[in-house]
Amino acid sequence: MIGLVAVVAAVLGAVPPVSVAWLAPALAIHLLWTVLFLRVAWRRNPLPSWLAAGDVAVTVMFCLAQRHLVAVDALAANASWISGLVTMSVVVAGVAWRPAIAVPAGLAVAAAYLVGARFAAPHQDVVSTLAIHLMQILAIALLMTLLRRSAASADAFLRGSARAEVTLMVERLRREDELRQVGSVHETSLHTLTMVGLGTYDRPSETLRRQAVTDLAALERLRDRPHAGTAAIALDALLDEVAGRATSLEVRRSLTPETVPGDVAERFARAVNEALANIARHAGVREAELVSSSRDGEIRVEVADAGAGFDVERVPPDRFGVRGSILGTMRSLPNAGADIRSGTGGTRVSLWWRP
After folding, report:
1. Which of 124, 193, 296, 342 has a CB 3.0–4.6 Å from the CB of 309, allowing a cystine?
2. Per its UniProt record, what InterPro entries does this chain match (predicted)?
3. Entry pTM
C-alpha cells in the first residue's frame, strides 16, 4: 500500500526540475520491487534478510537520485515521496534485523537521503531532517527490542505452562495405573487369601496351587514396579488427551496402543503439544493429523498439517518453540530424536524413540 501511495505522490509531484526520463524507470522499478516485497513478505515469516537488504539498497538508490525525481519544494518541506520510503526502509530494517545491523542500515539510508537532498537543493537545511531520521531509527530499534524480549518471555511462560500441564496428565495416568495394579492385587491375592481363610479349600488343591503362583507373580511385579519417573504410561492415551486439549484444531488421530516409560511419554507429549500449538498459531489451517506407530522396536509419532510452511533454518534463536520444545525435548532422551520438514505443502514433525 505504501508503495502505491508513493507512486501516486511521485506522479502528482512531477513538476520541474523532475525528469520524466528518470522518474518513469524509477517508478517502474519501485512498482516491481513493491510487488516482489509483498509476495515474499506474505509467504515468509520471519522477514528474510535478503529482502530487507534489497529494500535498503533500492531506497538508497532513489535517495541519491533525488534531484531528478523530486521537486525542490517537496524537498524543502521534507514531504517528498522518497522521504516516506526512507521511513519504511528504517522500519523494515528494524523488523528484519537486530539493532546491531538495523541501526547501521538505517543510518546508511539517512545518509544517502541527506546526500541526495544536498545535491538537489544545496542550500537546504538538513539538520532537522537528520534529527527526524535519527529519532525514527532509534525508536524502531527500541520498539523491536522490547517486542522480541516480550515474545521470549511469553515463550518461556507458555513453555512452563505446557510442561506443567503435561506433567499433570502424566501423573494422573500414573495414578490410574497404580490403582489398576492395586485393584488387580485385590481381585487376585486378597481374594485367594480370603477364600483360604473361609475354609473353602480344606485340603491341597491343584487349582489353589496355580492361583497362588499367579498371585505371587502379580505381587512380584508390583514390588519391582519402577519408580515414578520411569513408571509405564499408555502413550496413546496421553497423546489422545493432548490432542483433545487443542480446541482450536480438528486433530485426526491414528494412535497405536503402546506403553512407554513415564519420562519418555512426557517428552513425546510436550513435543506434540508444541507442534499442535504452532499449527494453531502459524499454519493458517484448522486441521492437523496425529499418528503414532511402532515398527522394529522403534516408536514413532508424527504431527502434520497442510498449512503455510516455514524455513526451519531461519527460525530466530530466541523463538524456543521449534528448537527447544520439539527438537531439544526429544534429543534430550537417549536413543530419541526429532525432525521437522516444512514447505509450501505444509509441515510434518517426526518424533521417535527406541528402547
Report:
1. 342
2. HATPase_C_sf, HATPase_dom, Sensor_HK_TwoCompSys
3. 0.51
